[in-house]
Structures are given as C-alpha cells and as structure tokens.
Design goal:
This protein is an alpha+beta fold and 138 residues long. It has two domains: 2-78, no CATH class; 85-129, no CATH class. The chain is 29% helix and 43% strand. It is built from four helices and eight strands, in the order αβαββββααβββ. It has helices at 2-7, 20-26, 60-78, 85-92, and strands at residues 14-19, 27-28, 32-35, 38-48, 51-58, 93-100, 106-115, 120-129. It is elongated and about 80 Å long.
Length: 138
C-alpha cells in the first residue's frame, strides 16, 4: 500500500486529528487506522502535545470488505430459523472412506460427528468387508 500512497497526490490524503488515546484505539498495526467505520492507510503521523495528526489514504477495498464481513456476521447471528433435522444429520457425516487392503478385503471407515453449540460427539466404526475391491469399467 506504500506504493499507492507514494503515487497519490497530497490533496487526496485525508487529515485526521486525534487525541493520543483515540489514536491508540483506532490504529490497526503500524500502518493502518480504523476511524468512523472506514479503513485508512497511514501516509504520515505527527505527534504534538497529546495530539496526533494523521495523513492517510482511505482504503475503500478494505472498508468494503469489512462492511461485507460485518453484514454476513450480523445476518448469521440474527437468523433464528432451525435447519431441518434431515439436513443436520446429513451435514453431521464427516466422511466415509473405503480403504483397499492387500488381502482383497475392504476396510470401511465411517466417522459421524454431531456438533451443536452445546456439545460435540464423535462416533466411529471400522468394518472389514470380505470382498474384492471395485474395478473400474473399461
């Protein structure tokens, strides 16, 4: 982002005056600032008498991304509909993998996980099936 700031005219940088406490709350890492719902890439800082003057470039892409993530998060947390039980049971099957063995039998593993916000339960089963492995059709 420093390259983009270097290509930007000084007139398009925004001057933000903050108290030192506000600056410490708003800064994100060494070169970013979140202020009033927007993300900024810091071009320069000037500290004087408990105040901070920030010259920064509005980062529209990051601001839009954070807004989208916030919208998705709010939609997910406000959804009160319970998914159908059949769908929950289907989604709780983690995987089913047949593993061919050297002695022409299959070992069939099935792990079922049922997770809720309150508990997590895993069930597992391992079965040997006395059968040759499946063959690809020519």
């Amino acid at each position: 982002m420093h390259a983009e700031i270097a290509r930007t005219s000084p007139e398009s940088l925004r001057k933000i005056s903050l108290s030192l406490a506000e600056y410490n709350l708003a800064k994100e890492g060494d070169d970013e600032l979140e202020w009033k719902g927007k993300m900024y890439d810091i071009a320069s800082l000037r500290f004087s008498e408990g105040k901070v003057e920030v010259l920064a470039l509005v980062d529209e892409a990051e601001t839009n991304l954070l807004a989208l993530l916030s919208k998705i998060s709010k939609a997910a947390s406000s959804d009160t509909k319970t998914p159908p039980m059949a769908l929950m049971q289907y989604l709780s099957v983690t995987f089913t993998i047949p593993e061919p063995q050297e002695n022409s039998t299959f070992r069939f593993a099935c792990i079922i996980a049922h997770n809720t916000p309150y508990s997590s339960t895993d069930y597992g089963a391992l079965h040997k099936i006395a059968a040759p492995p499946p063959r690809a059709k020519a």
